[in-house]
Structures are given as C-alpha cells and as structure tokens.
Give the backbone structure.
Amino acid sequence: MLRTTREFFADRGVMEVQTPALGAATVTDPAIDSMCTRMPGAPGRYLQTSPEYHMKRLLAAGAPSIYQIGPVFRDGERGRWHNPEFTMLEWYRLGFDAARLMDEVADLVDDLLGPAAYARRSHAELIGARFGIDAGAHDPTVWLETARALGLGTHASIEDALDLLLAESIASSTDRRLFITDFPPKLAALARVGPDGMAARFELAVEGIEVANGYGELCDPDELEARMDGDIRRRRAAGRPDVAADQRLLAAQRQGLPDCAGVAVGFDRLVALRLGASAVGEAMAFDWERA
C-alpha cells in the first residue's frame, strides 16, 4: 500500500517531505491533547499530533503541493480505532478547493480499497436524518439536550455536542463511503468559512469509520490567531492542558500561505479496512499494548 500511495502522488507531481516529529509548539485544538518530552536545561518539545503546522510553514516558504507519511502522537487516544501513536498521511494541494480535494481523496481510497460509490451529505443533513433536528438552524440548546441524552457530560460545550451527534450519525449511516460537507462555523477548525457561512471542511467515513478530515485552508493570519485564542480559552475552561499559540505558524501565515486545500488521512485505518480487520491495532506490527 505504501508504494502504491507514493506512486499515486508521484503521478500527480506532489512532492514528498519530512517534517519534525518533535516541535516547540503544538495544536490548540480543544479536542486534542499532546505528549511532551522533557530535556534537562532546555524547554520541552511536543510530539506532533499532525504535521500540519510544519507543512504549512513549508508552503508559506514557497514549497509546491506536498505530502507526508509518518508517525503522529495523541495523548489519551486509546480504543478500538485509536492508538496513541499512529501513521498519518497528510497532503496539501495548491489551488485546490475542498470539493476538488474530495475527488482526489476518493481516487486514493479507490486505489487502496477498490472502487465504490461515494455519498455526499451536509453536516446538518446527516444529523437531521439521524436525530430529527436541524443542526444548521436550531437553538444550540437543542444540540446539547440531544447529546446529553446520549451521555454527554453536563459541562460539555456545544462543539462537543456536535462532535458526538456527528459520530453517532456516521455510525448509523448506511452509506459505505460517505463524505460529510458544509460544517457549521463552530466546527471550522482551520478551514475557511465561505460566503454561505459554512466551513469549507469535509470528512470521509468508510464503513462507518472516519478516515479523513480535510479543509479548504484558512489563509487569513488574523482569523487564525483569533481562532487559536478561542481554542486556548476553551481548553482552560474545560481544564485541558494549557498550550500557547504557535507563533512561527502565525508568522508564516503573515508571510503568506498560498490558496490551498489540505487533508489528513488515518493510514492505519485504511490498512485495517483493506485487511478486513476489526480494530486498528490488528493493522499495526506493534500497537500500544505490544509496543
């Protein structure tokens, strides 16, 4: 599969890169916690949860369309389809929007798993079909009440509620390969928000398992800084480990991140699906329990 993947990008003129597994900064995303190393006499370094920040710095410095396959690390993520260390395939395409990148993601998945039909449903449509609510228009308290009925904690945020409702909706969908599009701005993460008020973000689920998360990338450095500051406030309110905004990424975006779209793919999950495995650990030589 790895050789096929490299051939896939070589045929499209996308350059392979390698960025640090350890970095001075890490993501502010309130849903992700990082692992931190310690060194005597020196600041700690974060094991990267994604190569995104470093890859965007390369793009801002003039790199062409690029991709990377390598290990990433997330604290506390253990389960049937989660491992604290896993392999991520991430790539960025200059001049692409989210719709065009979705087509390329489908081409890659077809190469690796065999061709199949893809459904495309908006975030609001998918949640509405499962729970009978309009996720795009309802008072947010309805999202919270619906999610709490599923076991969400009373102090969880609206964003947490929407994440849970989406996960439940994906799990119950009968679409074997499903792109979820048109996310609400609250779930934009690092995607741009379009004139229609929706985030240019998509996810791909295969057999009910999320395998890809992509954006029409946010290029505005002031908006990026504002979102990072909001993330940090949410982390503090939720009692999550405190982190600082990555000033090098902000400086790179002020220098100029070119118009692009990017996507991160859980490569181990694709391997597990190819093998017909019942858990991601079955596709790893050494999962968390055997490492």
